[in-house]
Specification:
Elements (H helix, E strand, L loop, with lengths): L1 E3 L5 H16 L11 E7 L2 E6 L4 H14 L11 E5 L2 E5 L11
Parallel strand pairs: 1-2
Antiparallel strand pairs: 2-3, 4-5
This protein binds zinc ion (ZN).
Zinc ion (ZN) binds next to loops.
Length: 103
């Protein structure tokens, strides 16, 4: 699984993966392998999560995580806002709004 987003979103990603694992565990054993996360990344300032296959419950969990990312600084996990910085969309708190690169 490719994961490319800032450490500030790690709690969101960990929470999401925990929720997805719990939901995957409820699926028939023969189908579980198809419900895998393909990509986790930042796009236009928001967390984006792609799965090979998913249920409505998984989609709702992903939607909630993506919404949470738009309120969370990608650098430090503090409350943030999505804004355009140096021509790029990013979600940052006031302290990190000028920092382009994510550690
Ligand atoms: Zn920050």
């Amino acid at each position: 699984m490719a994961s490319k987003c800032g450490v500030g979103w790690k709690p969101i990603v960990v929470g999401l993966l925990t929720a997805l694992d719990a939901e995957i565990a409820k699926q028939p054993a023969s189908e579980r392998a198809s419900f895998r996360v393909v990509t986790i990344k930042q796009k236009l300032g928001a967390l984006r999560v792609y799965m090979a296959s998913w249920t409505e419950v998984m989609q709702a969990a992903i939607d909630a995580a993506e919404a949470a990312s738009l309120r969370t600084c990608e650098v430090c996990s503090r409350p943030g806002k999505r804004r355009v910085c140096q021509g790029l969309w990013m979600t940052r708190c006031r302290t990190h709004r000028r920092r382009k690169r994510v550690p």
